[in-house]
Predict the structure.
Amino acid sequence: MTKAEVINEIAEKTGIDKISVQETVECFFKVVKNRLNDGENLYFRGFGSFILKKRAKKIARNISKNTQITIPEHFIPKFKPAKVFMEKIKKSEKVKKLISK
Protein backbone atom coordinates (compact mmCIF):
# COMPACT_ATOMS: atom_id res chain seq x y z
CA MET A 1 0.00 0.00 0.00
CA THR A 2 1.36 3.42 -0.92
CA LYS A 3 1.03 6.72 0.89
CA ALA A 4 -1.49 7.88 -1.71
CA GLU A 5 -3.64 4.80 -1.08
CA VAL A 6 -3.51 5.41 2.67
CA ILE A 7 -4.58 9.03 2.12
CA ASN A 8 -7.46 7.92 -0.12
CA GLU A 9 -8.68 5.35 2.40
CA ILE A 10 -8.56 7.81 5.31
CA ALA A 11 -10.40 10.41 3.23
CA GLU A 12 -13.12 7.88 2.32
CA LYS A 13 -13.58 6.63 5.88
CA THR A 14 -13.63 10.06 7.55
CA GLY A 15 -15.24 12.22 4.88
CA ILE A 16 -12.37 14.71 5.11
CA ASP A 17 -11.07 16.02 1.78
CA LYS A 18 -7.90 14.41 0.43
CA ILE A 19 -5.83 17.61 0.56
CA SER A 20 -6.40 18.01 4.31
CA VAL A 21 -5.63 14.34 4.92
CA GLN A 22 -2.46 14.59 2.82
CA GLU A 23 -1.27 17.65 4.77
CA THR A 24 -1.94 15.84 8.05
CA VAL A 25 -0.09 12.70 6.98
CA GLU A 26 2.86 14.74 5.67
CA CYS A 27 2.93 16.73 8.92
CA PHE A 28 2.91 13.49 10.95
CA PHE A 29 5.92 12.17 9.02
CA LYS A 30 7.70 15.49 9.44
CA VAL A 31 7.12 15.44 13.22
CA VAL A 32 8.43 11.87 13.47
CA LYS A 33 11.56 12.73 11.46
CA ASN A 34 12.23 15.94 13.39
CA ARG A 35 11.77 14.33 16.83
CA LEU A 36 14.07 11.44 15.93
CA ASN A 37 16.56 13.95 14.52
CA ASP A 38 16.45 15.74 17.90
CA GLY A 39 17.24 12.46 19.67
CA GLU A 40 13.71 11.87 21.02
CA ASN A 41 11.78 8.61 20.81
CA LEU A 42 8.06 8.57 19.98
CA TYR A 43 5.61 6.22 21.70
CA PHE A 44 2.10 5.46 20.43
CA ARG A 45 0.23 3.26 22.92
CA GLY A 46 -1.39 0.29 21.18
CA PHE A 47 0.50 0.91 17.92
CA GLY A 48 4.24 1.04 18.52
CA SER A 49 7.33 3.17 19.03
CA PHE A 50 9.71 4.99 16.75
CA ILE A 51 13.06 4.70 18.52
CA LEU A 52 16.72 5.40 17.87
CA LYS A 53 18.86 2.28 17.95
CA LYS A 54 22.59 2.59 18.60
CA ARG A 55 24.91 0.73 16.26
CA ALA A 56 28.35 0.04 17.69
CA LYS A 57 31.61 0.96 15.97
CA LYS A 58 32.82 -1.84 13.72
CA ILE A 59 35.48 -2.66 11.21
CA ALA A 60 34.34 -3.54 7.70
CA ARG A 61 36.33 -4.75 4.72
CA ASN A 62 36.47 -3.35 1.21
CA ILE A 63 36.99 -6.62 -0.64
CA SER A 64 37.90 -5.05 -4.00
CA LYS A 65 40.75 -2.98 -2.50
CA ASN A 66 41.52 -5.43 0.32
CA THR A 67 41.42 -2.66 2.93
CA GLN A 68 39.71 -2.19 6.27
CA ILE A 69 37.24 0.59 6.94
CA THR A 70 36.19 1.74 10.40
CA ILE A 71 32.50 2.51 10.62
CA PRO A 72 31.92 4.78 13.62
CA GLU A 73 29.09 4.21 16.07
CA HIS A 74 25.84 5.74 14.90
CA PHE A 75 22.10 5.70 15.48
CA ILE A 76 19.44 4.38 13.13
CA PRO A 77 15.66 4.86 13.32
CA LYS A 78 13.66 1.75 14.16
CA PHE A 79 9.96 0.95 14.54
CA LYS A 80 9.01 -1.40 17.35
CA PRO A 81 5.37 -2.57 17.19
CA ALA A 82 3.30 -2.70 20.39
CA LYS A 83 2.32 -6.08 21.84
CA VAL A 84 -1.36 -5.46 21.06
CA PHE A 85 -0.47 -4.71 17.44
CA MET A 86 1.74 -7.80 17.13
CA GLU A 87 -0.94 -10.05 18.64
CA LYS A 88 -3.53 -8.73 16.20
CA ILE A 89 -1.25 -9.56 13.25
CA LYS A 90 -0.46 -13.03 14.64
CA LYS A 91 -4.18 -13.83 14.94
CA SER A 92 -5.09 -12.45 11.50
CA GLU A 93 -6.61 -15.05 9.19
CA LYS A 94 -5.47 -13.13 6.09
CA VAL A 95 -1.85 -13.18 7.28
CA LYS A 96 -2.09 -16.90 8.06
CA LYS A 97 -3.24 -17.49 4.47
CA LEU A 98 -0.20 -15.57 3.19
CA ILE A 99 2.11 -17.73 5.27
CA SER A 100 0.58 -20.97 4.01
CA LYS A 101 1.17 -20.08 0.35
